[in-house]
Amino acid sequence: MKHxxxxxxxxxxxxxxxxxxxxxxFIKGSWEEITARARKEHKPxxxxxxxxxxxxxxxxxxKVFPRPEVKQYMEENYVNTGFDVFKEKFGxxxxxxxxxxxxxxxxxxxxxxxxxxxxxxYQEPDRFLEFLQENVARNKAGKYLxxxxxxxxxxxxxxxxxxxxxxxxxxxxxxxxxxLGETKDMTAExxxxxxxxAKELPAAYREYFxxxxxxxxxxxxxxxxxTILDRLLAKDLTVLSATYDKTVFDNFLQQQQxxxxxxxxxxxxxxxxxxYLYRKCxxxxxFLEFAVAHPDTxxxxxxxxxxxxxxxxxxxxxxxxxxxxxxxxxxxxxSSLEVLQTLAYMCxxxxxxxxxxxxxxxxxxxxxxxxxxxNLKKSLQELSI
Length: 385
Fold this sequence. Notes:
It contains 20 helices and six strands. It has helices at 2-13, 31-41, 55-64, 68-77, 89-98, 125-140, 158-161, 173-182, 189-197, 203-211, 213-220, 222-236, 246-257, 262-280, 284-293, 299-315, 317-327, 337-350, 352-368, 374-384; strands at residues 17-18, 27-28, 45-50, 79-84, 105-109, 115-120. Helix 8 (173-182) packs antiparallel against helix 9, helix 15 packs parallel to helix 17 (317-327) and helix 16 runs antiparallel to helix 17.
């Protein structure tokens, strides 16, 4: 009877085959088979793109996708599949179509072929579940990244596609400039993707992009739009010398605030501060003082800057104190386990009450993730003595 039941289950899934791991929520099949199933079940498609040897991809496979709450939600609300971008041609086709250069990248596609959203990188189970839930809601509301066509086959020029060829030596910038000089629609899919690979945008494109950035975000998503924005901001900073002058930098900020929208200014200002004060001028203290004075909600910056600032923080207690002050209004119970643990141990001697808070939040997350919590419990006990 068990064999009969299993045969019936397999038959129900045909022509789509289950992936090698018997208990996974992911299935394999042609794009036609996957989309047919999505239409039949009236579910969006979740696509995981990855490659062998990608640590973040493996962490998602081992630590996140199998979590009971994640697996159940994906099974109930999505048709789930995945492609190795180096071993499967369709995986690379998706890279070309949706301009994917970092992995893992997740695509969420509606049953009608519209791109709902995309995500990138390792995400802890709670944040990944929020991502899944958000995109179910987007799908129900018919909220798509409509700048991309529903055809997953790239219709882009050869010089763009060549960027994804094995052994590519880079992009033909002369071809990029010629294409942008000829095209009339600055928000078309191919135009946008060519803008992504342009080392420098023509002045007309720069002005149009800044003025209409909200439209680009709505059409193509925030992460890709930020790729272009970051390149513009990096170009802005070239006018400043590597010798820090507070008056010059303050005047620069005042001028640039007139260029970028109010909605973008917090992001823009912190980009300038990190990449000019810290990276260009090597002024760690000045950067942290600026960050304390202009807090934002980007706990990811707090996370990765702890890595870059690590040696300085360990040598200079005053820098460590500034870093803790910067993090305090940014971190919440929803911040990543990594950053909560980092700040908890950093505060252990300097600020016990703050350390208790971060250790408590970290313990709650680690418990929810099914991770070993012995060290966190021990640290909390030590703080209570």
